Amino acid sequence: MQPEVRHYCGLFGIVHHPQAAQMAYLGLYAQQHRGQEAAGMCSTDGRTIRRRTGQGLVSQAFNDGDLEYLANETAIGHTRYSTTGAPTDTNTQPFKVTGAIGEVAICHNGNLVNASATRSEYERNGSIFVTTSDTEVILHMLVDRRFADQPDPLAAVMRQLHGSFCLLLLYPDRIEAVRDAAGNRPLSLGTVDGAYVVASETCAFDIIGAEFVREVEPGEIVTITKHGFRSRRFAEEPQCRRAHCIFEHIYFADPSSNIFGENVHLVRRRLGAQLAREAPAEGDLVIAVPNCARCAALGYHEESGIPVGRGFTTNHYIGRSFIQPSQSIRDLTVRMKLNPIRGSVDGKRLVVVEDSVVRGTTTRGKMDALRRAGAREIHLRVASPPIMHPCYYGIDFPSRDELIASKRTVDEIRKYLGVDSLAYLSQDGMLSCVQGKREHYCTACFSGQYPIPIDPSFQKDVFERNQLRFFEPQPQPQPGNGKNGA
Ligand code: SF4
Fold it and tell me: Which fold does the domain 258-447 belong to in CATH?
């Protein structure tokens, strides 16, 4: 089912491992949930950097020929959902440049809130941008003499970036891993077979048998070479006002991952238990709306004592529903992806646990399907507060007008969704379920309080609208599958 909120990006890097490309492939595969539009990898033999990118899932983006081409000891990779910049080959990361600073490749998870202003400044001074992604601004800054001449050019550039960014930069002799001063997105360091790895989520470590070492700290740059890693800071503690994205715990991250110091599954279970305390319901069966809400449904069941069961089957073998040509076929595809189990729900009073409600259209479809399968009552419990504000830090929520909770009361939403009762988790309740200090989390999409200053005029396609259109970039043919590479 096409999600109402798109995931953004997943990063993976590995230094000095004989099977770096294969490891990077698996590390991206494990983080497929963070981006399904495109994937890319760059690797280096210590002299030059090679690049391969492709559209679609990791398994579609690369073939054996790509992995052979990338067979070097150090690699970075990226799974993409576009938070700025259209989903094109040109915008697929990692980006690679060759210039006065040598070769460098970069990939990014997050959103720069000052990218638009910085890009305009460079364009006024004659710089040409190839992509419509905010990430390209960083490359222009790296070759800018104002920064390149400083003792630590990378740190100098990082101090000028505002917003949400985890970055991996690949140079012929190293990887630089960077996390913004707020630690808005997760980034962790691990080790496997004596080599160091870095990934957005620790689920990538599990799949390759890597051990977790520690998180990259907010405001930190970690330089990883074949000799090990060393750390420096571009922002010191007083400037590092933590603002971890709480939505990572609610929805985005894989339940097996540890992020922001704790396990995602355990947080979701606590969210479900807290929801049961705040919003009890009379029911015969607790079911989850697949797939993210399963952990919260388990927590709700444990706290309420109401039996938990399966309400839907999920068909994992169907492609993305939005590529189907007509609305009616799309609707049928959605139905096939998530089919209610009549034998489980028929005649029952259901307590349905959902992780979040965004537009409401998808949730309404699921509630409708449960009614058709014979549900007697539906009590919808949402394991997060109402989403009322857009995200400017890399999550592609729809506009405020499209967020159902921004314009309707809870009872109006209940009627729209066609359920017998509806309750959301409170913001206090949500924050009681994470172990960190509550002021260390971003909750802006619920509260409207943005911890990092924003540009309210920012829109995802800002660079498309302003891009010069002298030419349409053509994909470069390459051996194997005709994808982009260099
Ligand atoms: S606004 Fe919401 S989705 Fe965006 S970073 Fe903050 S908590 Fe996460």
Answer: Rossmann fold (3.40.50)
